[in-house]
Amino acid sequence: MGHVGAVYRGRFAPSPTGLLHAGSLVAALASWLDARAHGGTWLVRIEDVDRPRCVPGAGEGILAQLATCGLTPDEPPWWQSQRGDAYAAALQRLVDAGWAYPCACTRQDIEAAWTARGVPRTRHVERPYPGTCRPEAGGLRGRPARAWRLHVGRVIADLGLPVPLVWHDRRLGPQAQDVETAVGDFVLKRADGWWAYQLAVVVDDGAQGITDIVRGEDLADNTPRQIVLQRALGLPTPRYLHTPLVRGDDGEKLSKGNGARPLALDDPLAAVAAAAVVLDLPPTEGDVASSLRRWITAWRARWVDPAPPH
């Protein structure tokens, strides 16, 4: 698998569906520390591509929260809502290669296709796309196109990618997934006209030269499909480190969707210290700046390879 060079570039890429909460600060702190420990560049990208879910002013609010916590990006932030032309160009490349196709299916259609095959539904598990609109299966059959999908099987076959796809996480260790069986042909452009997360994140990581992705463990399952898309677009594969999740009293992942409260930043040191506890970093000493310096040293000792990435 292609890999990145030795010049470190990392990023924190929040979705502005609300302000940062305790869980998202853990990911922000970890990605910042990893960049600083490697002597690299740390970027912030506001992933506001899912416009219907974005909260007005949340992107600016997130940037202000990060600054209050001493986490300032080294370059001006990117906003995905301004990147539509780049996503359109990437989709066209995939279409031209025969690796993307239009899809007419609704969620009900997908459910009906699996039911017709006698495959029962598993709770909380998203069904893979059954390939109904693949060109070799008859395509749209006169129905209007709703979305665009990546033809995962064709990409894997044409590029000779291994099945299952194997990748390494710096914290979780060796990982593997049969992307075609587990996920199927995932969406690149949604039925409502907005760009899908998978395409936008891969295109932007490539455009920004991201070498290392440090993010929450809940996103680890996205990694293999993003690697397939990276390969299809001729982009290098970053290194990955997925951080522990912060969970609520009910054991569920802390998220905006389940009512996680925005960070209270009247005491920034307390907020950042709580994130450091999740990352198993030393107790705080002094102010935010001195604590961050101490945590960089601890992070470097634990997570920085003795040899540079290659």
TrEMBL record:
Domain Glutamyl/glutaminyl-tRNA synthetase class Ib catalytic: from-to ranges? 9-258
Supply the EC number(s): 6.1.1.-
- Provide the binding site for L-glutamate: 11-15, 47, 197, 215
- Per UniProt, the short sequence motif 'KMSKS' region occupies residue numbers 253-257
Query: What is any one GO biological process for this UniProt entry?
Result: tRNA modification
Gene3D superfamilies hit by this protein:
HUPs
**Which stretch is the leader sequence?**
none
Q: Which residues bind ATP?
A: 256
Q: Which residues bind Zn(2+) per the record?
A: 103, 105, 129, 133
List membrane-spanning regions: none
Identify one Gene Ontology CC term for this UniProt entry: cytosol
Q: Which PANTHER family match?
A: GLUTAMATE--TRNA LIGASE, GLUTAMYL-Q TRNA(ASP) SYNTHETASE
**What family does the entry list?**
Belongs to the class-I aminoacyl-tRNA synthetase family. GluQ subfamily.
This chain's function reads:
Catalyzes the tRNA-independent activation of glutamate in presence of ATP and the subsequent transfer of glutamate onto a tRNA(Asp). Glutamate is transferred on the 2-amino-5-(4,5-dihydroxy-2-cyclopenten-1-yl) moiety of the queuosine in the wobble position of the QUC anticodon.
Query: What name has this protein been given in UniProt?
Result: Glutamyl-Q tRNA(Asp) synthetase
Q: What is the protein's species of origin?
A: Tepidimonas taiwanensis
High-level lineage: Bacteria, Pseudomonadati, Pseudomonadota, Betaproteobacteria, Burkholderiales
